[in-house]
Design goal:
- With 356 residues, this protein is an alpha/beta fold.
- The chain is built from 16 helices and 7 strands.
- Strand 6 and strand 7 form a beta hairpin.
- The protein is globular and about 60 Å long.
- The N and C termini lie far apart (51 Å).
């Protein structure tokens, strides 16, 4: 790794800036570095005759120094890990009671990552009641696709009622959202965009970004084909719960529920639901690649979630303690205490209640 002293000497030799004034930084060389090392969206200075003034040798040394900070590497962008093996393992070990989500998410992500010639971005829509694991799976995806997980600059989360609260400002939001998506993809082509509570998005807002998810080579000179869009919604939760309950009443195994039992019902409920997501051109244009159903959790799954939460705290609970945590949850139907109405998201608070 090049030392700071050598780097400064090289920059000084190349007249990059004068040390007596930071404000005298050469606009040309900043632009040159931004274009050629950081690969920014910029215009090369065509009429500047000093283009040869910064030798390629120095450019290479600067690139080596920059990459040593972890932003790029021989295999590509080191912010991106695309650890499919880790994704598969985490979905199998950490996600409980969601065999359909495990299968569909892994298939979708694996196929997309291994196909660099995809003709559109990957667009997934997660559906199910609150607490069934939609956000949890989103974190698992981010942790295995990006070095810094949800904190990566290649991951951006939008929460509909928080980021876009006022319908009267939808035109302002459109411009802001388009610009944010463009800027992020320029910095990181495989950006993960997450839209939580998608059913609360204004239809015009979703339609404004529809071109970025469509089958286009580029939009205004920028390719979005390596981006990933995730929409999280409670829409369809009732239909999913009804299918799960029917299977239970008929004595069939939960694991026998297949996509063929849910997909058509899920699509129909999404199309008929109120809210911008259902009314948007994403649905009419068939741009959602996979609808991912999240089943209601059973008592046994809640216990597994509790066990994981205890393990994360370095504790080993006994069976009685796990039962106490699980019993503190709400279930429907109440008389049969079958499906958790709260899900695993409430487990940490419940565990804190039972800790001494």
């Amino acid at each position: 790794m090049i030392s700071i002293g050598i780097l400064l000497a090289l920059l000084a030799e190349a007249d990059f800036f004068q040390f007596n004034s930071i404000s005298n930084v050469s606009t040309y060389y900043l632009n040159y570095l931004y274009c050629n090392i950081w690969e920014g969206d910029c215009q090369q200075n065509q009429d500047d005759g000093t283009q040869q003034g910064f030798p390629q040798y120095y450019t290479g040394m600067l690139a080596t120094w920059y990459c040593s900070l972890g932003q790029c590497c021989d295999s590509g962008d080191c912010r991106i890990t695309n650890n499919i093996t880790g994704l598969e393992r985490n979905l199998q070990v950490k996600l409980h009671g969601q065999h359909l989500a495990q299968s569909v998410v892994l298939k979708a992500i694996q196929g997309f990552v291994k196909n660099p010639e995809s003709n559109k971005p990957l667009t997934l829509s997660f559906h199910g009641c609150s607490g069934t694991g939609k956000n949890f799976v989103t974190r698992i995806v981010a942790d295995n696709l990006y070095r810094d997980g949800m904190k990566s600059e290649c991951v951006h989360l939008f929460i509909a009622p928080f980021h876009f609260p006022h319908a009267r400002l939808v035109d302002v939001y459109k411009g802001q959202l388009r610009q944010a998506i463009r800027d992020m993809v320029l910095r990181c082509p495989q950006t993960l965009f997450i839209f939580d509570e998608a059913e609360k998005l204004h239809p015009g807002l979703i339609d404004a970004i529809k071109p970025y998810m469509d089958h286009y080579d580029n939009v205004d000179g920028v390719s979005y084909r390596r981006a990933i869009f995730l929409f999280l919604s409670n829409i369809g939760g009732a239909a999913i719960n009804e299918v799960a309950l029917d299977f239970w009443h008929s004595g069939q195994n939960r694991e026998d529920i297949g996509m063929e039992d849910l997909e058509h019902l899920l699509r129909a409920e999404v199309m008929e639901a109120e809210g911008g997501f259902a009314q948007s051109e994403l649905m009419s244009g068939h741009l959602i690649d996979f609808f991912v159903p999240f089943l209601p959790l059973e008592y046994r799954h809640v216990k597994l979630c509790a066990c994981d939460a205890y393990a994360a705290r370095g504790l080993e609970p006994d069976e009685g303690t796990l039962d106490e945590v699980a019993k503190a949850m709400l279930y429907v139907p109440k008389e049969e205490k079958l499906f958790s109405a709260q899900g695993c998201k409430s487990i940490p608070q419940r565990i804190d209640f039972f800790l001494p």
